[in-house]
Amino acid sequence: MSQKLNFLEGKCPVTSGVKGTQHFRKRTSYQQKNMLRDFLLVYNKMTEICFSRCASNLNYRTLTIDEDVCLNNCAGKLIRSNHCLMGAYVKLMPSIVQRRQTEYENKTQELMQLAGENVLPVHENVTSE
Amino acid sequence: MDPVKAQQLAAELEVEMMADMYNRMTGACHRKCVPPHYKEAELSKGEAVCLDRCVAKYLDVHERMGRKLTELSVQDEELMKKMQQGNMPQ
């Protein structure tokens, strides 16, 4: 099973060799379950895509040789494109996440400041009586 | 992760994924075999035969994809091992 999980993190000729493509070996069982689920979903999606694009001859119950070749190529292309997509995503996502986090932190700080300003006038009224 | 728990997990996910595959298969075969001209409620013989063949082909494709994935993942693992071995003597 770990073999299948590692397979999702293959090398793309364009995006490989980048810092972001480091893998964390220690995983909880929850994370492993999710990874396995992702792998199986990719598998099902691949089957659907390659079937809809390659299985053109529905005159026979078995797959023709042309369809066989098409399926092999389809599988290879999809797997390699998955690698490249993941490589690019891993490269780009951390900066976006960082930016969103700083925006969120700034926003919460602003809101806390506003809340602090709203609290003070009430106390003044109380003490003046 | 202990092997018993791993097997349990795999069995759970297998059921879920079989259901998912079934849904995708029905969608794909319906798109391929039943044109959207709803003149009558009964399936024509051609459509019925097409659906039968479609299911057989889809399951065949599913099996081949599985084999291809494991084949490529084994290749990937071997490549990584070779790379690690190449780095070791240094």
From TrEMBL, chain A:
Cellular localization per UniProt: Mitochondrion inner membrane
Membrane topology type: Peripheral membrane protein
Protein transport is among the record's keywords: yes
Origin superkingdom: Eukaryota
Gene Ontology biological process: protein transport
Gene3D superfamilies (alphabetical): Mitochondrial import inner membrane translocase subunit tim13 like domains
Gene Ontology cellular component list: mitochondrial inner membrane
Keyword ATP-binding applies: no
Keywords: Chaperone, Disulfide bond, Membrane, Metal-binding, Mitochondrion, Mitochondrion inner membrane, Protein transport, Translocation, Transport, Zinc
InterPro entries: Mito_inner_translocase_sub, Tim10-like, Tim10-like_dom_sf
One matching Pfam family: zf-Tim10_DDP
One example GO MF annotation: metal ion binding
Ranges of residues in domain Tim10-like: 31-89
Known partners and oligomeric status: Heterohexamer.
Family: Belongs to the small Tim family.
PANTHER family named in the record: MITOCHONDRIAL IMPORT INNER MEMBRANE TRANSLOCASE SUBUNIT TIM9B
Annotated function: Mitochondrial intermembrane chaperone that participates in the import and insertion of some multi-pass transmembrane proteins into the mitochondrial inner membrane. Also required for the transfer of beta-barrel precursors from the TOM complex to the sorting and assembly machinery (SAM complex) of the outer membrane. Acts as a chaperone-like protein that protects the hydrophobic precursors from aggregation and guide them through the mitochondrial intermembrane space.
Domain commentary: The twin CX3C motif contains 4 conserved Cys residues that form 2 disulfide bonds in the mitochondrial intermembrane space.
Protein name: Mitochondrial import inner membrane translocase subunit
From TrEMBL, chain B:
Entry superkingdom: Eukaryota
Membrane topology qualifier: Peripheral membrane protein
Molecular functions (GO terms): metal ion binding
Keyword Transport in record: yes
One GO biological process term: protein insertion into mitochondrial inner membrane
Similarity annotation: Belongs to the small Tim family.
The protein's role, per its UniProt record: Mitochondrial intermembrane chaperone that participates in the import and insertion of multi-pass transmembrane proteins into the mitochondrial inner membrane. May also be required for the transfer of beta-barrel precursors from the TOM complex to the sorting and assembly machinery (SAM complex) of the outer membrane. Acts as a chaperone-like protein that protects the hydrophobic precursors from aggregation and guide them through the mitochondrial intermembrane space.
Domain notes: The twin CX3C motif contains 4 conserved Cys residues that form 2 disulfide bonds in the mitochondrial intermembrane space.
Protein name: Mitochondrial import inner membrane translocase subunit
